[in-house]
Amino acid sequence: MTPPLSNLAAAQHSAPVTDWAARIGWVVGLLVFVVFVYWLMRQGWKWRGTLQGDLPELPATPDDPGEPQLSLSGRYHGSTTAGQWLDRIVARGLGTRSRAELTLTGQGLDVVRPGAADFFVPAAALRGARLDKGIAGKVLTEGGLLIVTWEHGGRQIDSGFRSDRADEHPAWVEAVNRLSTTEHTTSTTEHTETEGAR
Length: 198
What we know:
Elements: H1 5-13, H2 20-51, E1 68-81, E2 88-89, E3 98-105, E4 108-112, E5 119-122, E6 126-132, E7 134-135, E8 138-139, E9 145-152, E10 155-163, H3 169-197
Antiparallel strand pairs: 1-2, 1-3, 1-10, 3-4, 4-5, 6-9, 7-8, 9-10
Domain PH: 55-176
Protein name: PH domain-containing protein
Transmembrane segments: 20-41
């Protein structure tokens, strides 16, 4: 037997009413929580920058950087204390991720970063390079990152780069290691000769 039309109409009007006040309360609460977490992260970033305030200004590119040996276009993914891939360095703009143009010369490594502070790593400050898969906040496949280790202000630093063409990474590792070894040998020889002259 077919139910009366009045019953069908009543059934249609008996749908549950949305509690908009409760929904708005949940959305506002979620937004407040997200803003609070963001504020905590920002405070942590500032605190870390204060702790690293003793890091000297980064060297600028010399007027004559020398003949380019290698160049690379890609991304700069950040810097950490050498050997501690989670200990991010944020002072002097080193915590800012950005596009990067790298040029290696006999004078050192020139890092040009659109929208962020450029810096130059003198050849004497280079300590080597390797392939790795991660640096603070960024994890890639094995060998996906080019890590350049250098010294500045008495601190050993690992800086992570990724080329737009990852097959360039091995050539960079070889070239940086060769340059850093040559510079280290030269400086050791000069130091020995100076000590001998005394």
